[in-house]
Design a protein that fits this description.
The protein is an all-alpha fold and 490 residues long. It folds into 2 domains: 424 residues, Up-down Bundle (Growth Hormone, Chain: A), CATH 1.20.1250.20; 54 residues. The protein is built from 19 helices and no strands. The C terminus is likely disordered.
């Protein structure tokens, strides 16, 4: 094996290690959701307190993504990845052995910190490792599949683990994965020194950013209990916005900002993150409300729900791994993205006609295939566009921004969709509709709104995102041959 071939193989092995780390973080959310009833029974949670098993994680995770990404630029992305992995794995052990509500909620908050540090820098490391367009397209396709499809894999894994071994094992399973990922990362991922804390160690800015995002995520998560027009929602939401505005103003004025605003001058970076935030609303709605439809109306158990989403996962993986990279190289990511969003909108509209006595093959499978097709084509293209304006010194920030637009956009969107769906259901119940019909009508409203938001995302993609000239990439693809193995041995 030649030196170049050995180095190439090492890069692709490093990619797989990073993807395993990302998969562990993504799986955690849906695995825990499936296990919540068992956790409630075992530790005696009330229904309102049970939500904090999820919320404690989301507040830390959503609040720290941007800061974590920037810390990767400053002190080194591999270092931040490994620190996050250690925190996440250690907190998983605490979750697994927790015998009280307080310990579990506290450990989940710490786990969210580790998850943010780990996941925020991965995309930045991938872009740095694969600067050439053909390889980068394939690498981003692998990362995107893990990031987007991991949730549906988590539904299946959560159902199996919870039913076979108990809820403690959804956390225990992270221990060997976390340790192995760290050991392989130390061996395979090249360390790159950051640009140094002196280039952006803005402590007041970090407090403003983290405080604003954490408070914003907390406010959104409480909307279901408090309502959008409540004093708590309006006051805390106002404070969160004020903190974030103060952060942006500070970044524009200081010499070495924590978050250089020059990144947002790129139409593709700003536009791709906006498109992504709109797009994930519809997908989060399908993912969570669709699971409720399968459970509450069609009577599926947790394992059956995971299996129901499996076709979407398989289609998504096929597109991400085999076709999207080629299409991006041949036509450009913008041209690939726009039809993918049409597929997603069509899938949501098909979900909006599911009956209370629906059958899987007729009513569920077709939109699942369309959504898998759209996500598998669209998200690698979005990731490529969102990272296109990042310099090596900004790649961690750009990576953290991508994750933040997904998490915060999805949280806001899901809160809005769930609230509107509940209001619709309550109104129909008051009018004498059956419980199943009223629930289903609420879900349908959420899907339609999600499809409308995807339509707005299409308009943003058409008018804001810039077209790439694919001719050079296409020539590169022709010279390199078909995109098949990640590396070859000689």
């Amino acid at each position: 094996m030649t030196t170049d071939t050995r180095a190439d193989r090492k890069r692709w092995m490093a990619l797989y290690v990073l993807c395993v780390g990302m998969l562990m973080i993504v799986l955690d959310a849906t695995i825990v959701n499936v296990a919540l009833p068992s956790i409630q029974d075992d530790l005696g949670f009330s229904q309102s307190d049970l939500a904090w098993v999820v919320n404690a994680y989301l507040i830390a995770f959503g609040g720290l993504l941007l800061l974590a990404g920037r810390m990767g630029d400053l002190i080194g992305q591999r270092r931040v990845f490994l620190i996050g992995l250690a925190i996440f794995t250690g907190a998983s052990l605490l979750c697994a052995v927790a015998q009280s509500q307080g310990l579990l909620i506290g450990a989940r908050f710490v786990q969210g910190i580790g998850g943010a540090l780990t996941s925020a820098v991965i995309l930045g490391m991938i872009v740095t490792m694969f600067p050439e367009s053909r390889e980068q397209a394939k690498a981003i396709g692998a990362y995107t599949f893990v990031a987007v499809a991991g949730g549906s894999i988590g539904l299946l894994a959560g159902g199996v683990l919870t039913e076979a071994a108990g809820w403690h094992w959804i956390f225990f399973v992270n221990l060997p994965i976390g340790v192995a990922t760290a050991l392989f990362a130390l061996r395979l991922v090249e360390p790159h020194e950051g640009i140094g804390l002196r280039e952006g160690a803005d402590l007041p800015g970090a407090v403003l950013l983290t405080g604003g995002l954490m408070l914003g995520v907390y406010t959104i998560l409480e909307v279901g209990e408090q309502g959008w027009g409540s004093t708590q929602t309006l006051s805390l939401g106002g404070v969160a916005i004020a903190l974030l505005v103060a952060f942006v103003v500070r970044q524009a004025r200081i010499a070495n900002p924590l978050m250089p605003l020059r990144l947002f001058r790129s139409r593709n970076v700003t536009g791709a993150n906006l498109v992504q935030a709109l797009l994930v609303v519809g997908l989060f709605g399908m993912f969570f409300l669709g699971a409720l439809y399968l459970q509450r109306i069609l009577g599926y158990d947790a394992l059956e729900v995971g299996l129901a989403y499996l076709p979407a996962t398989l289609v998504m993986g096929t597109m991400s791994f085999r076709f999207t990279a080629r299409l991006n190289l041949r036509f450009g990511p913008r041209a690939t993205l726009i039809p993918s969003m049409v597929f997603i909108a069509a899938g949501l509209l098909l979900f909006a006609r599911t009956p209370v006595d629906g059958t899987y093959v007729t009513d569920i499978l077709p939109p699942m295939v369309l959504l898998g097709l759209g996500a598998g084509l669209g998200f690698p293209s979005l990731m490529t566009l969102a990272m296109s304006g990042a310099t090596p010194s900004d790649s961690g920030l750009a990576s953290g921004l991508v994750n933040t637009s997904v998490q915060v956009g999805g949280a806001i969107g899901l809160a809005v969709l769930a609230t509107l769906a509940t209001e619709r259901t309550d109104g129909l119940l008051a009018d004498g509709e059956s419980a199943a019909a009223a629930l289903n009508s609420g879900y349908h409203l959420a899907y339609v709104i999600g499809a409308v938001l995807v339509g707005i995302a299409i308009a943003v993609a058409v008018f804001v995102l810039r077209s790439d000239d694919p001719s050079g990439a296409a020539a590169s693809e022709a010279e390199a041959g078909p995109v098949e193995p990640a590396y070859s041995e000689t």
